[in-house]
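Researcher: Going back to the complex we discussed earlier. I've cleaned up the inputs and rechecked each line, so this should be the final set. Can you rerun the prediction on the complete assembly and write out the structure?
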Amino acid sequence: MSIDPAFRKRLIQASGADNVLTEPSDCWPYGYDNSRRQALPEAVVMATDHAQIQRLVELCHQEKIPLIARGRGTGTTGATVPVHGGIVLSMERMTRLIKMDPANRVMVVEPGITNQQVQDAAKEHGFFWSPDPTSAAFCTVGGNLAYNSAGPRTVKYGATRDNVLGLRAVTGEGREIRTGVYTTKGVVGYDLTRLLIGSEGTLAVITEATLKLTPLPEAKLTLQAVYRDIGSAAAAVSAIMAQPVIPCALEFIDGQAIEMIRNYSQAELPEGAGAMLMIEVDGLEAGLEQAAERVAAAARTAGVIDVTLAQSEAEVQRLWQTRKALSPALRNIAPKKINEDVVVPVSEMPALIGGLEQLAQKYAITIVNFGHAGNGNIHVNLLIDPDDPQQMENADHCLDEVFTLVLRLNGSISGEHGVGLEKRDFVAREIDAATLELMRRIKAQFDPHNILNPGKTLPPAPG
Amino acid sequence: MSIDPAFRKRLIQASGADNVLTEPSDCWPYGYDNSRRQALPEAVVMATDHAQIQRLVELCHQEKIPLIARGRGTGTTGATVPVHGGIVLSMERMTRLIKMDPANRVMVVEPGITNQQVQDAAKEHGFFWSPDPTSAAFCTVGGNLAYNSAGPRTVKYGATRDNVLGLRAVTGEGREIRTGVYTTKGVVGYDLTRLLIGSEGTLAVITEATLKLTPLPEAKLTLQAVYRDIGSAAAAVSAIMAQPVIPCALEFIDGQAIEMIRNYSQAELPEGAGAMLMIEVDGLEAGLEQAAERVAAAARTAGVIDVTLAQSEAEVQRLWQTRKALSPALRNIAPKKINEDVVVPVSEMPALIGGLEQLAQKYAITIVNFGHAGNGNIHVNLLIDPDDPQQMENADHCLDEVFTLVLRLNGSISGEHGVGLEKRDFVAREIDAATLELMRRIKAQFDPHNILNPGKTLPPAPG
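Model: Rerun complete. Updated structure for the full complex:
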């Protein structure tokens, strides 16, 4: 698809000549994300400020041209891949920290700023912003807003949706809206802030976000707990989450993962380990050891093999080494593994892992599970060779059954990666028809010509 | 207005004869709330279960009859007063605790259950539900959902919107929707849960709520900090909120309130007190004293007169006595005071209180301020005599200027009481026209015939 010269002229008029790319070779790098999907946009516009974005959206609305906002492409679901062509709006230059307001624990930023830049700026004033995805060094706040990104510390401090006070945005009609408040409380009007967060650029283009900051903890302690089986580990997670010391990380790896680590690294692990939890507790130094002991006590369920509280920074490193050995091991065995992101109630984790073991057998696929146990958010890794068509077909069937299992357990098909294209066609299994129809109608109010990231997030209307 | 006999018959058919009141004398008690407004509904229906509510909404949708869901009438904004007639749907009999799930820290309830009943049931398992409005003993969870209710502990544990995972509801077309998840994470579809929370019954009738519980803290310590002036107190609030020990209550009263307490009670207060903070810190017993000391250190700003850490339960009572003497004193002086509920960024509290002092002089009205300082949420009390028409007119002008001031300070006209009728006509000052129009369009998707609590929350469309 190539761009009409008259439209190109108007695009340049609206966006500035320096900010418009139309050569396919220039546009190509803006057409992929970490899902390994790719499609060529007809043009790429570099966002510079709110007014420029508003002009661009107006133009796209008039001409019914798809517009896909994009951060740094670290998403895993194809949500920014321009499968219907149109214009990719890259936020990479819109990286200003508009306001740092430590007295109110607030930071106002443009969407192109990276998560890490936000953390660095907040740290100077003794704060952090809770969302901590693995891609923090590269991913943008705009992406975090689009996907409602989370990470290990979500279990204590919340995900993106819990840590944003307000937004400035442009709807699909090119109208500016301001949602939310600059305060930590507010009940005037409908909550459009949280409606936009997690909507993957399908409702509006966010041009400014007011982030809620949290004071940095003074100290942190690390524990490792090893279990005979997943059932004991899940019981421990419930017990940990039922006492007043909420950990700032409560991460999990399953027996298959432990086996893999044992084979591919030097990490020490006790014999008979069927599941492991990595736990971190933060707060004031005073009382923190007792807090960690309280968590350790809760972690000592019937099937526990060992609970270790790191006594030194070296021991912290040693304990995390096991968990950190997992990713290289996985990459080694299956460089193109499928990484799913399901969530179930904590008490259903044993049923989930048990079911996954059965599916692994049925489809002859190795499945390795790890994730954020405190939220029941498990990354299900199917170790497949994408060049083997039979295995790929098996993987498709297997994933289908994984989602069925997750929904039967009262879970959700995505905890933090989002829907995009990858899971779009499974959404109707989780959300009933009436609720989906309402979501589509809401989308049509924000974006009547369906130009904003069309074809993503919601499955097409039936019939 | 009286009800048409044919419609009455259909209403009884849909709702059950035992659940329908149509005698004006029976209906009258369901037409008021704590705003002191009152209007007579044409009928009252006692909600019994989801299916019955769905039948009723279908009927009202067909016949375009207003339907106003109501808890126990403790709201202060007239949000449940049936000013357009129609049917009041009372939730008072729909009080079931559907599911208690301690392993997942979840409780599923019907909307008529009181906040206190939820707290009691949660406590048996070592949990609480964060929203703690003053009316907790009487107010319903449905009301808490409608207003996004909060309270003192919101500063640490969040308001209603932060503590609900999912909802079951009936839209204005009589369609069942299910929003959210049963897990503490989830990013599939748009966030309709938080859209419904705070929408004051204008989008859907909530029939079931999945509440997120929090473990009860082990211990609590109480501090009182007294300041020469509001500026010093506000600086202390910023300092307290910038260090890692977030208090579970950070309450404020101003100099006028202190003066009043001094005159109307035995509570001890140091001379020259221009503002007071009541602070509570909770957590494990181990380390809690150090945590309280950390907060006390932050509270010791330049204008501090005294910071007292209660050393015994008796001293806790003595310290709170001052704060608790305020409400009777206020009732004594001005039984029909106007109680507003504004919120400003914490750093703007001195500007707010300063501005309020000027307005008090200008309009010759005593204004007393107290509230949830950690969130900048201040209850502005205008001590007026409602039988004095001149004073009432002054109060109207004064309130108008209060809202202007609050918005100039980047605040919001309601922190936790909501909009209802009382503040509806001020909403357009806070929310711009494009955003309001979008909210109206969203309302029309949920409720195309505008039967659900018509005339509340959003100001009428212009023109």
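Model: Worth noting: Residues 389-408 of chain A form the longest helix (20 residues).
Researcher: Good, that matches what I expected from the previous run.
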